[in-house]
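Ticket opened by: R.M.
Priority: normal
Category: complex prediction / small molecule

The reporter submitted a protein together with D-MYO-inositol-1-phosphate and asked that the result be attached to this ticket for the collaborator who will pick it up next week. Submitted input follows.
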Amino acid sequence: MKPDLEDQAASAEGPWEECFELAVQLALRAGQIIRKALSEEKQVSTKTSAADLVTETDHLVEDLIISEMQKRFPSHRFIAEEAAAAGAKCVLTPSPTWIIDPIDGTCNFVHRFPTVAVSIGFAVNQEVRDPRRPGPCPSGPGAPVQLEFGVIYHCTEERLYTGRRGRGAFCNGQRLQVSGETDLSKALVLTEIGPKRDPATLKLFLSNMERLLHAKAHGVRVIGSSTLALCLLASGAADAYYQFGLHCWDLAAATVIIREAGGIVMDTSGGPLDLMSCRVVAAGTREMATLIAQALQTINYGRDDEK
Ligand code: IPD
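Result attached by the on-call engineer:
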């Protein structure tokens, strides 16, 4: 396939350098907008449940990020939280694809709880195409997607987390390293509740937490922003993370950051990560991730690419 012009314009630093730099610039710009809006009145609406919130700032920031990226890279594709909520399909194809959560921690943002982030991931599908089977690449299990980089900006603490495939993970220039803990009875575990609040889902959610506490984990924490919880894992400040109901825009950027900090990101079945499956276990070590995966009961949230 002939590379696009903008792809050819990449600097000697690597093929996606220009994209990475733009993601950093836009995350910082979005962060300024979110910081200012945090203390102001907001127009709040609900999406899939009474706990699944969106504000005018989510839309403003998403539109800004996508329009600036489109100007620079018109052939690139986008998967973004609010566009998906409005019915856009989440499909990974061979084209370079930006995966965006304009405000991760919208519920925190609404309550002025200062744990909110902008998350921008970038995926490239580098599968060698079979010319006899044209059409989009499969985005289900085993889809040959390569996550190239992730940028997550903690808007209020002004912490910029980045990870680039093969080049390490950093927070404000300091290299990140996951914890080496393998023993669940010595672990600090992070999770998030997710938007579904029907009795059956809540029962499974609480029973999963109970299982980890029975296994004598030191603690289980919920901070209200999955991307920032995953960044804390990448920093070694926690030993594991799990969640059902996590979308690809919550996970794409953080996955690169965790992997580049030496960690493991996998499916809750213990198999390879499937970005579209809405379920994840991440940990500093494979042993820890496997122990968590074995302890969990599955909560079915469907798939992002089937909505
Ligand atoms: C949500 C937050 C929340 C998690 C949800 C996410 P949003 O993202 O990360 O902590 O429980 O699963 O979707 O809606 O604030 O961007």
